[in-house]
Design a protein that fits this description.
By secondary structure, the protein is an alpha+beta fold. The chain is built from three helices and five strands. The strands form two sheets. It has a three-stranded antiparallel sheet with strand order 3-5-4, with helices on one face. A hairpin with a 2-residue loop joins strand 1 and strand 2. Helix 1 crosses helix 2.
Length: 105
């Protein structure tokens, strides 16, 4: 895979973050309908911020995300935005997640 260097005002960069996180107590709650919706939400949030999703895999008990972001966006900020948004939306759409876990992530 060829590297794609991004260029903006006074900076050239090629940053990729590999973020892995799991549900509370590593419970396997990310099953078929929830996993598909989680994938959609993560891609939507990354597109909203202008981040490029390189790889995304939603497993029953964890999520792998490889994303390219601007140097101004720290890895903690990227993870915070994605996890907060997906938790709020998934818990609102799937009531079973609220009854099984005190928090999703």
């Amino acid at each position: 895979m060829a590297r794609e260097v991004q260029v903006s005002a006074g900076v050239a960069y090629d940053l990729g973050y590999h973020v892995v996180w799991c549900p509370k107590y590593r419970r396997p709650v990310l099953t078929a309908p929830i996993a598909a919706r989680c994938d959609e939400l993560i891609r939507a949030k990354c597109a909203e911020h202008g981040w490029q999703v390189i790889a995304l895999e939603v497993m029953p008990d964890h999520v792998h995300l490889v994303v390219k972001a601007h140097p101004g966006d720290s890895p903690a900020h990227v993870a915070n935005q994605v996890k907060g948004f997906t938790s709020r939306m998934l818990r609102g759409e799937f009531p079973a997640l609220r009854s099984k876990l005190p928090t999703l992530w």
